[in-house]
Amino acid sequence: MKITVSGHPGSGTSTLVKGLMSHFNWKSLNGGDVFRQEAARRGMGLQEFGELCKSDLDVDRELDRLLKQQMLEGSAQIVESRLAGWWAYHLEIPCVRLWIEVDEKERARRVVSRENISIEKALEDNKIRSEIDGERFMELYQILPEQREPYTTVLDATHLGADEVLAETIKILEGNS
User: Fold this and answer.
1) What domain count does the chain have?
2) For residues 152 and 2, is the Cβ–Cβ distance under 8 A?
3) pLDDT tens for residues 104-160?
């Protein structure tokens, strides 16, 4: 594993991962993929499985255990999830642990262009999602994804385009080779 990529919804983590995969010809592991695989394994739809995760925190713990296991197996050079940096830190996996910081208005603008909703709706949705996730992560692990402790690099991408974020990340990775 070379890098974990974490950030709040709308921060550009998925776009960055696609760029890194193309540039380096690397494989990635996405926490969302682990979620989808587990839902399929249980014979559940994504919405139904999401409701189960909300009502049973042990399911969240199991998903995180599966993600950590796959991180340790090392089949991907890039791991993307909100807690991937924390897991690499706790598991002492030597890699770049990147947090992409983007202010809430810019994240909402990015969500608007992706999901074709109003800026007000995007701001509210992002706020609610971050609060719910933050409460869940505190209850489960006493951590917040954005706490700086586990990250080797925090990249403020509020005023950067996707190509600039990719270029900065490549510089970071090539400096750590």
Assistant:
1) 1
2) no
3) 999 999 888 888 899 999 998 888 878 878 888 899 999 999 999 999 999 999 999
* Residue 4: its H or E element: strand 3-7
175 lies in some domain: no
In a domain, 134, yes or no: yes
Mean pLDDT computed over 73-95: 94
The answer, as to whether pTM is greater than 0.90, is no
Q: Which domain holds residue 74?
A: 3-168
Those residues whose C-beta lies under 8 Å from the C-beta of residue 102, and which sit 6 or more positions away, are 7, 8, 10, 11, 12, 110, 156, 157, 158
* Paired strand residues for 97: 4
Residue type, 16: L
Domain of residue 140, CATH code? 3.40.50.300
